[in-house]
Amino acid sequence: MAFLSGFLPALGAALAVSAAIERFGGAARAPFGARPTDLGLRLGAYTLLTLFWFVFSWRPWLAGLSTVLTVAALVLVSRMKRHVIGEPLVFSDFALLPQVPRHPQLYYIPPVTSPIIAGPVLAGFLAVAAWYVLEPSLLPRGTGAAVAAILALPAALVALVLAAQRPPLAGLVARRFPRPDLERDIGRLGLPATLMAYWLRRRGEGPARAPAIARATAAADPVVVVIQLESFVDPERLGGAPLPLMTLIQDRATEYGRLRVPAHGAYTMRSEHAVLTGRDVDSLGFGVYDPYLAAGGDEPTSLARLAAEAGYETVFVHPFHRDFFQRAQVMQRFGFERLVMEEAFGDAPRIGPYVSDVALGRRILDEVRNRRGPLFLFSVTMENHGPWKPGRLPGIDDPLAQYLHHVAGTGRMVEELVAGLEGERATLCVFGDHAPSLPTCRPGFGETATDYALFRFGAAEREPPRRIDLTADALGRRLRATVGAEAGVPAGASPAQA
């Protein structure tokens, strides 16, 4: 009884303040869920957070404060993320946290040594230490009882998590969350409950079924080069000067147009996965937010595997670290036999912090010229990766000006590739993975549409250019014909006027 009288007031205060933070802090665009069952799940998630923090101190008011701070931090981060890329915080974002200290230059957050970060963190630790001393513990008296309590509470929480992944609790979670609907679920149940439930749903999903694909039997085009262009859109859409590449595309490409991709300003892996697998978002379940977490590249009908079955050498070229997004591991599981990554570009020129796109394009042409047979090559550029911050380029500090400087290099790379592939029987596909997260390019820009182009070389008769707007997965299905897997216009294509 003494335990409850000490714990319940702190818990009640934590629940009330946390709910108020979400109600008035703009955690979701959907209405705040007021139905009893919705409120019950929301408060249940806050309670689990409080119990989690209580494990570390056995001090109820410290645990309650920790819960309030956790909810406030989640809401703040979610609002910041929504402002930049138009999407609230999702459970899969936590899997990317180890990348932040390893590659801090890729994020808009200050390093941990910055006073902006180090100051509040240090102050928080000091406040917790002081509170730890001042607030009495609720641990039972006696060594045996205290040890039993210290072991029992975390064991009970772990048991609850395990039970939630098995019937009957897993079925209840699945019925409450039948499909991903972030805005609605955060509004109804709150951000903590949605993060927990989506994680459980992803854990409970089996491997997503691969689409039925006609297997490749022979090489169609001896050379197939697909290049994912970092943050690429037609710069005129951002107010920049005309890019000569766009004129070349309209005059020379077999197909070109807008490419609707799964995200704005980030989540390269979503577009990458869609093109390499041809799978639409509805087939990914709760793995839609990070498809690499869903299957880790284990895709039997990926473009690379289909190409390998048809006798192609499969090569992945990316001038950056092997561990970022676990790309080396994922690409090998996709079916790429050879990886050409950062160590192969040690002497390559850089524009800003990254290997120049022109240097990357010349390495791609070397791979084409030195091939021993049919070649399928997939590449991801790096030069125009954000953030675009002062000091990145000498004499150019404006983010948009930096972006436009880099996108000109991207244009020169593709122009050189088009010239270099003339005379080959080949396919070249280039596409933007997502729009840039610039102050002048906020979420909603172009409905997440980038640009793509498909060039064909060596045909007896050159087809006239035509504009066809596609989704990223539809482009991936269209590319299957280039390695002899399947032909025809996929779902998701919409002819448009050039």
TrEMBL record:
<keyword id="KW-1133">Transmembrane helix</keyword>
<dbReference type="InterPro" id="IPR017850">
    <property type="entry name" value="Alkaline_phosphatase_core_sf"/>
</dbReference>
<feature type="domain" description="Sulfatase N-terminal">
    <location>
        <begin position="222"/>
        <end position="438"/>
    </location>
</feature>
<dbReference type="Pfam" id="PF00884">
    <property type="entry name" value="Sulfatase"/>
</dbReference>
<keyword id="KW-0812">Transmembrane</keyword>
<keyword id="KW-1003">Cell membrane</keyword>
<dbReference type="InterPro" id="IPR000917">
    <property type="entry name" value="Sulfatase_N"/>
</dbReference>
<dbReference type="GO" id="GO:0005886">
    <property type="term" value="C:plasma membrane"/>
</dbReference>
<feature type="transmembrane region" description="Helical">
    <location>
        <begin position="112"/>
        <end position="133"/>
    </location>
</feature>
<dbReference type="InterPro" id="IPR050448">
    <property type="entry name" value="OpgB/LTA_synthase_biosynth"/>
</dbReference>
<feature type="transmembrane region" description="Helical">
    <location>
        <begin position="43"/>
        <end position="76"/>
    </location>
</feature>
<keyword id="KW-0472">Membrane</keyword>
<feature type="transmembrane region" description="Helical">
    <location>
        <begin position="145"/>
        <end position="164"/>
    </location>
</feature>
<protein>
    <recommendedName>
        <fullName>Sulfatase N-terminal domain-containing protein</fullName>
    </recommendedName>
</protein>
